[in-house]
Design goal:
CATH superfamily of chain B: CheA-289, Domain 4
Number of domains of chain A: 5
Number of strands of chain B: 10
Strand content of chain B: 35-45%
Largest sheet of chain A: 5 strands, mixed
Radius of gyration of chain B: 17 Å
Oligomer: heterodimer
Number of domains of chain B: 1
Number of helices of chain B: 5
Structural class of chain B: alpha+beta
Largest interface: A-B, 32 and 39 residues
CATH class of chain B: Mainly Beta
Distance between the termini of chain A: 65 Å
Amino acid sequence: MDMQREAYRVEAYDLLAELEISLLELETNSDDMELVDRVFRAMHTIKGSGAMFGFDAIAEFTHDVETVFDRVRDGRIIVTPPLVNLALQARDHIKHMLEYADDPVRLNHEQGAAILKGFRNILENTQPSPEPEAATKPAWEPIFGEHRGAGADKIYRIRFAPHDTLFQNGTNPLALLAELEGLGPCRTMLHLDRLPAPEAFDPESCYLSWDILLTTERSIEAVQDVFIFVEGACDLTIELIEHLESDAQRPVSPRIGEILVARGDLSPEAVDAALQRQQRLGQILVENRQVSAEKVSSALAEQEYVQTARARREQQTTAGSVRVAAEKLDQLVNLVGELVTVQARLNQKAVHSRDPELLGISEVVERLTDELRDNTLSIRMLPIDVTFSKLRRLVRDLSSELGKTILLKTEGGDTELDKTVIEQLNDPLVHILRNSIDHGIETPERRRLAGKPEQGVIRLKAEHSGANVLIHISDDGAGIDPAAIRRKAVEKGLLAPEAERSDKELLQLIFLPGFSTAGTVTNVSGRGVGMDVVKRSLESLRGAIELNSRPAEGTTITLKLPLTLAIIDGLLVEIDTNKYVLPLSSIEECVELSREDLQKTHGRNILNIRGQIVPFVPLRERFAITGQAPVFEQVVINEVAGRRVGIVVDRVIGEHQIVIKTMNSLYKNIPEISGATILGDGTVALILDVQKLLSGIEEEEMAAAG
Amino acid sequence: MSEQKSKTVLHHYLTFKLGEEMFAIDVSQVREILDVTTITKVPRAPEFMRGVINVRGSVVPVVDLRLKFGLSASERTKDTRIVVMEITLDGSLSIIGTLADAVHNVMDIDPTAIEPPPKVGARWNTAFIRGIGKHNDEFIIILNVDRIFSAEELALVRPEGTTVEENRAQTAA
């Protein structure tokens, strides 16, 4: 039962999310009946399943809300902004009820009562329903909205044997069959066993009879109606033989003997007797002349028909989607990661052995592993739309609270990102949007004075760019004034008053800890949690943030995120026998550094690459690795936070796709090691965080200088 | 009754040697015992943290308790093993390996034969010791491994600012 309750909870959360989207859309397209329908169905399902799984309070609460939307469906209530508002509040309240289902004391019952009162007021102000529709609905009315309609298929067996005289009253049996086909897919089997010898054949008599299997969602009455005009002129039986939904618990399809018995073509005893003999049942029956070959083939056809219908039905349910626990997925990704490692090892061994057969196997394994990896990672991908829709609500609520009118436009919501990235992206995005709404977009009066339309626009756009996803958040608000930032930074002691900075550099100061430009601390933002937090959380996702702004025109923030966190492309390098991985995404090039070149730098650790000054870090020295450096060292040039910097290593081994393993928290004080990976030979290589390496060195230098 | 029973079950210890001294840890904390493999050194980590190894796809740190206890570093011999254990670190379970000069066996130590660590005259930091047991007239130091890797101890784990000069001096010596 607990599992079912949990399943209900999960489903309800999904429905609530969908409900929110529908309601927000309804606010702008108030006459879209499809949206009304969606809202109603979501409410209906929350109510119905809630009652079923013991969430009685939710079912009760949702009941009135559902009734209101039912009347909206009938056109007796029209959608107004207050109604949508109320419905959104109701949605939030249902969410709270779900969250506090085990702890109802924490729930704000007054709020719930107020919302219900609002709905009852709306109900009282409409005329009572002309026909008491709600009362006549059966209690078990479909609980899951989508199961109505196409879902509840039934199979009817229709045995239609017209009397000889059928033609005489002008009836065309083929027209009846065509009408049946109008109800749903049919399988028709013709019986000719009453056909007389040619000399006795009367062209005005009907010798034909049919067995028809009909799959339809209509009731048995609807099928009977087809034959309404031939009643008395035929032998007709219509039976429901398969209810594809409710019969799901029946383990096997009916056997041919069962079908023949059910049709009355054969007695059960005859079936049993035939079963004694180890031949195919149909064959025996025909040999015994108990039934005609035709009857058997007709029954066989029925068996096949029901089986395929069931199979199709099963396919439909399974082809949709499967809900899998996130931990199971994580485990799968881990296993695939290990497989990738083992495969690399196999590959190494195969190349070493020069055995063509082993090489062949290794190649096949490599291809399969690659496919498995891509597939597994794609399972974890979610469209970013999930996050976008949450933000829609935020924009709506915040802008009305601040008395601003803001339109949120989204683009590229189907762009997919790793689940973990999506989850951790929520907070930074909320923060950025809050800033845009609070500080970016001006009040309507100010916008009017500035010659802008009163309604501000915030655009959210997601797009792919190589192995990254870019998310742009742009507003057409006041923009950020570099002079104001300068004043603020000097005031906070983050910048020397005489320091020379370009406008672009000044904008970057926003990302410094303890920086907040808001003149007044509002309820919304400016609570000391600044852009530095946003920047940090993006960096923890191996992402980056960029800010562009023009005063009076608006601000654009671009987030750059990796597609996945589990596997990256890295450059494997070596110092002495220590192996390190540098993330390939930030590497620009590798250059050679001879001992001669090194002497020319006079210990300043600066290289001249095609006229550009590039500082470098001798990693051997930094990591205190003993031993002698080779005559020719390699400098890996990285681009970090807009600067180029070289990392000097002994050897560059090559590009590798690596599976990231987290380091034990014992090593949390060593930030320049962001993780580890297991190499083909089973040893561990450490992954370097170049940015942290540099900031560590800078801090030490600052401390030494100060 | 049942509680008493479970208590007796808990008094199995894995014994191992560091130098001449016999140590023991609660067997329920031991995951496995491995031969020494390649240990990848982590730069700027304290010396007693020897590095990380691959334990079936997981990256596990290996520490040298001899260094932690102020002895000389472990010499690798054919008896050297890595004892992989589960410890509670910052309230969550963590896997850590420790070098042992030799691993002996699993033995029962009667709780009544375990004495609290001596307040004076101990060569070891008594905070790391749960008690001292006796077996065949030999003293066995029962370690409190969780305590060794506790937050306060880890606060001492800072990147070492080893300079090249010091490093060279070390290699020369």
